[in-house]
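lol forgot to send this yesterday, sorry. struct tokens for the thing we talked abt
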């Protein structure tokens, strides 16, 4: 893709890439500055929320102190005890107890303007005296939870937010237990309470609620008082509740107008009361008005600087690319076939030093162009010749397939059919014999028929084994190779001593088994026909998932370059079979020192032998050495010479690669057996 970019585009890209680190550093500095401002803002909010919480705690402690003094007053205790019918002997009870308590409540309200109402209850929590406003049953019902909390814990308590239909101002209730006269603990006789407006509470955070800062006091998951406008209240409260409603934490949320805000919550410690929390909220530094304007100006300045840099880069790129464009036009005319004379400069040299060097390079290219055209024609001719060789090889392969079909048909026709025909004739002869039955002669005839049929069965098994050994699927590739070697030994054709070592690994597919068998078959065939060896080894091993098969002999060897010729059909078929299963085939040979054929394939997973439990030893790649004097042994030469002709047929049959095929040997044996049977 980058190959189609012009020089100007590359200049711009390099400039942009060069600006990226600078922009990254600037962005990092801006980000860190905003993060530091955010941390400072959170610290400021934490200080403000802690200060407001301490102010609320001080306000509650002051009012609870007054309420506790009121609850320990003798008149209040006597009134509560008289109502419950438990007046101590040293306390004078009269019908004027409630009147005295009411006067006491009025006196407290006189010097405590923030207390709008005072009340007391009996031991069952029923209100027996209420002085002040609001005073209605609905409002009094809201105080029952706080009264019950004090009755249960015998401790002072503070309610959540209370509302009155007759007054839009918010209220809170403070309660304190009333014990029996002259006692400070034990069973309570009633509860004394005070109703406060939330206006004094708002005064504790008014100095901190400036600008965009919002302070909210929440009790029992409800807003008690806040400096937030109506549009911000619900979003802040919902964000606090969505943050599990826990205090002492920092959370962010979207305020009115989708403004990103950060808030800090702090717990107000007021003992066994409804949970009170102070929340302080501010816009994040990135959404803060002055900071946002500064960021916008900085971004605009950065974009302007980048555009100016790109403009300067374009000017420089045009000055650099203009000579190259003219040079390109001249070279294009050369590529169209307009080659200059050898003594004429093909390219006009102008521009900078680099452009002049490029022009000289094109001059040299023009001088070499003619010779390259000739080389191209030569290579084209070579490719055509190679294609002809490939087509010829394909024809040879087709002929080999047809020869194989002809061989199979000939084996069945020449070997099996005469045996069956002979058995049929002898059977008819026995049936047509009208002379007196002779048991001995019948037994002899039947034995001859059985022998012919047995020979026919052997020949059929031989043909089947050549097509596909049954042992390959039933017992594995090792057993099939051993069966193939046994056939060599039974043939009496001077085969060398062949040994099979190693085991077949687990996990071999049928395709791999067939390929290994055919490669070993072809290699052993070459050993018998061409090497003149008296010993050969077939080794199978698997080490760390690498499956290896080696066929080596101590025969005459050959030139390895011979294996690369396209006419060596046997070796070529071995390589193609190995490639079909994803394996590699290596042939190592030295004249006079034998040959080694090595098949390597990487298994999907490490495998082990079927019967071997120990780790196999690596295969030896060196050639087995001949005994001293074996190279010139007459017996060896005679053995090598005796395996080539098919004397009974009177012909010397060869394969498509000039070698004697295994099928020719079998044809010879079949003819011998047929002659003996007749």
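and heres what i got for the seq, position by position
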């Amino acid at each position: 893709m980058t190959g189609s970019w012009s020089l100007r585009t590359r200049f711009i890209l390099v400039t942009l890439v060069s600006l990226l680190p600078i922009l990254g550093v600037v962005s990092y500095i801006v980000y860190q500055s905003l993060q530091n401002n955010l941390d400072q803002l959170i610290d400021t909010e934490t200080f403000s929320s802690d200060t407001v919480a301490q102010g609320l705690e001080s306000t509650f402690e002051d009012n609870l102190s007054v309420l506790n003094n009121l609850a320990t007053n003798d008149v209040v205790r006597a009134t509560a005890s008289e109502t419950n019918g438990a007046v101590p002997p040293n306390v004078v009870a009269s019908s004027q107890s409630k009147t005295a308590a009411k006067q006491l409540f009025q006196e407290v309200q006189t010097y405590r303007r923030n207390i709008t109402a005072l009340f007391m209850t009996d031991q069952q929590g029923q209100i027996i005296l209420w002085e002040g406003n609001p005073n209605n049953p609905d409002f009094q019902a809201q105080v029952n939870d706080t009264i019950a909390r004090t009755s249960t814990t015998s401790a002072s308590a503070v309610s959540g937010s209370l509302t009155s239909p007759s007054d839009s101002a918010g209220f809170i209730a403070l309660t304190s237990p009333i014990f029996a006269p002259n006692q400070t603990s034990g069973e309570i006789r009633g509860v004394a309470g005070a109703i406060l407006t939330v206006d004094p509470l708002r005064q504790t955070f008014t100095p901190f609620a400036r600008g965009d800062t919002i302070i909210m006091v929440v009790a029992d998951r409800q807003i008690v008082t806040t400096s937030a406008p109506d549009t911000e209240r619900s979003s802040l409260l919902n964000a606090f509740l969505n943050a599990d409603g826990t205090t002492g934490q920092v959370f962010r949320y979207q305020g009115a107008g989708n403004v990103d805000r950060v808030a800090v919550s702090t717990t107000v410690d007021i003992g066994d009361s409804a949970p009170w929390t102070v929340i302080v909220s501010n816009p994040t530094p990135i959404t803060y008005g002055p900071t946002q304007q500064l960021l916008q100006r900085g971004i605009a300045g950065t974009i302007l600087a980048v555009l100016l840099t790109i403009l300067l880069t374009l000017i420089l790129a045009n000055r650099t690319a203009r000579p190259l464009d003219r040079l390109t036009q001249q070279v294009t005319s050369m590529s169209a076939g307009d080659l200059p004379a050898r003594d004429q400069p093909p390219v006009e040299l102008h521009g900078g030093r680099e452009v002049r060097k490029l022009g000289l390079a094109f001059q040299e290219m023009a001088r070499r162009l003619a010779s390259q055209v000739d080389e191209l024609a030569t290579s084209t001719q070579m490719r055509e010749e190679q294609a002809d060789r490939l087509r010829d090889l394909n024809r040879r392969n087709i002929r080999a397939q047809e020869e194989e079909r002809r061989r199979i048909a000939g084996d069945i026709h020449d070997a099996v059919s005469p045996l069956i025909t002979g058995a049929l004739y002898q059977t008819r002869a026995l049936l047509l014999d009208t002379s007196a039955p002779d048991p001995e002669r019948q037994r002899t005839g039947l034995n001859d028929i059985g022998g012919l049929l047995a020979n026919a069965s052997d020949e059929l098994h031989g043909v089947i084994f050549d097509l596909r050994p049954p042992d390959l699927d039933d017992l594995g590739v090792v057993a099939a190779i051993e069966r193939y070697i046994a056939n060599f030994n039974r043939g009496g054709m001077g085969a060398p001593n062949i040994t099979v070592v190693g085991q077949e690994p687990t996990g071999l597919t049928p395709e791999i088994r067939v390929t290994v068998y055919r490669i070993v078959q072809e290699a052993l065939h070459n050993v018998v026909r061409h090497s003149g060896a008296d010993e050969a080894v077939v080794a199978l091993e698997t080490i760390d998932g690498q499956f290896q098969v080696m066929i080596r002999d101590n025969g005459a060897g050959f030139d390895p370059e011979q294996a690369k010729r396209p006419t060596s059909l046997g070796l070529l078929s071995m390589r193609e079979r190995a490639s079909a299963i994803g394996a590699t085939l290596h042939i190592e040979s030295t004249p006079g020192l034998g040959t080694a054929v090595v098949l390597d394939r990487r298994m999907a997973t490490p495998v082990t032998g079927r019967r071997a439990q120990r780790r196999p030893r690596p295969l030896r790649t060196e050639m087995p050495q001949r005994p001293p004097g074996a190279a010139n042994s007459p017996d060896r030469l005679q053995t090598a010479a005796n395996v080539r002709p098919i004397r009974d047929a009177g012909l010397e049959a060869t394969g498509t690669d000039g070698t004697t095929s295994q099928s020719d040997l079998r044809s010879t044996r079949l003819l011998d057996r047929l002659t003996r049977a007749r």
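The chain has 16 helices and 16 strands. anyway ping me if u want another try
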